[in-house]
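Typical record is below.
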Amino acid sequence: MSRRQGVVLPPLLAFLAGNAVSPWSVGAQAAQEIRRPQYCDCELRLEHVVDLGDTAGPGAFPGIVRSVHRSPDGRYYVLTWNEYLVTRFDSEGRALPPLGVEGEGPGETLDVATLEFVGDSVVLFDRDLRRITVFDERMTPVRTAAIPGRMERAVAVEGIGFVLNGRFPTRPNAPLHVLASSGDYVRSFAEQGEIGPHDPGSVWWRSVAVTDEGVWAVHQTRYVLDLWTLEGEHVRTLERVEEWFPPLRNYSWGGPDDPIDPKVLDLAVDVGGYLRTVILRPSAYWAERLPEPRSNLVGQAVYPIPDGIGLFAATLEVIDPRSARLIVSTDFELEIRGFADPEHVFSYAEDEIGNPTVSIWRVRLASRVP
């Protein structure tokens, strides 16, 4: 992947003067298909910013990286799967004291699923303890509030609180929920057909972004974006229809001749109100880098699909939600796992002995130069 800068163009604004089957259905409105670009001879380019991660000490990741969050002052907060600890770095990639103490008491955490920045505070969302913990600018815990369910994603909404993606026992078929800034429950929405106990998690997983119009939520294994008001009213649906993104087929298992299908891993909105997506897809090296199969409990051969070894690549796209146009789509042979903020993405890789590195990249729109 080249790290050279392209010819940076003006903001995107300068370029521009679903039906689904239960349990996915959200309403009777037909999805509006996102049209392919017709006027933007451009591409997205990545400019390397910094690498994060040490083999030991406070900068060592305690597990597989789940998400990266870039604070307004340029610091990086890295979450790992099923861990209480938040690994922190300054803008130059130097490790800072980690955030989090394992436990169930005040200020302690067990499984930090996501976090948000609110003013000078950092809000941790604990999936196991079902609560939020607020840390002040000195990284001192100042408040804890219970949440009525398990969450996966969260986004702060100024003057309101938070929009969460998760499962609340009282509203098991609604994947989106609004909490007040205090943590008090407000409402759930995006109700869909009944979700059974054996339905895949992808049925209710959503990545969420907030614009002036409301809340945009994208499915993981269907490239469908729904717009909702914060009061829970469904406004409209946009859908990307491409042969390379078949919905609901093979999203978690695969073999050398049958790689897993692409997933929409993350969604963000930039300062111009344009939606940006990260799509994880099999890389060109899928077959040759796939580990040897193992037998499961019933004797079937199952291929392990680890992160960070070159099995995955990514596609980044920018969509104008107002005109339902795809502005640009660019493929990268990097395992890009999500947004650190709307202008930065992070990639994940492991060396030959399993030491992980997270790389931060600034995303730029550039003219397509031969």
Summary: DSSP finds one helix and 27 strands in the chain. The longest strand covers residues 356-367. Residues 1-28 have pLDDT under 50 and may be disordered. The helical segments are 286-289.
